[in-house]
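Me: I keep going back and forth on a fold encoding question. No explanation is needed for now; the record alone will do.

Assistant:
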Amino acid sequence: MKKKSITSLLILAVMIGFGSCTSIPKGAVAVKPFDIEKYLGKWYEIARMDFRFERDLNNVTANYSRNEDGTIKVDNQGYNYVTKEWKQAIGKAKPAGQPDEARLKVSFFGPFYSAYNVIALDSEYKYALVAGKNLKYLWILSRETTVPESIKNSYLKIAQDLGFDIAALIWVEHDKK
């Protein structure tokens, strides 16, 4: 009986863990309709919440393209200004909601996925506000190394209204070319 309870708890924990990869912060709504083909391509990270995989990175970009199997290739790169080295992480993304909904699940580590929710996007797919599974993960992305003040302020208001600590955002520097 005890062994059965432990097994049941482990199964429940795994199910909750995998289920959380498709969660979205309370009150947030993913963009709909969403065209993943328009979203593909290079994005510059403008701002982010700090977390260990991107700590000390500037010049951060994300490049999204199609894999042969139909999934999305995620190629993240950034320059670690402390170690003076470029870092790269390649992963994959899959839809996490309806096909026309801007909810993806992204993995850089085998079967472990995390939520990627586009919660604001301009009509030309030039600027995006992306939330993770909870209020610890937020990104402002742009097709260029800058974002207009009006977009920045609009996205910051959306994030703040959802409960994100926008004062904690790291504003990413990009080298001028």
In short: The beta strands are 41-48, 57-66, 72-80, 85-95, 103-109, 112-121, 127-131, 138-142, 170-171. The longest strand covers residues 85-95.
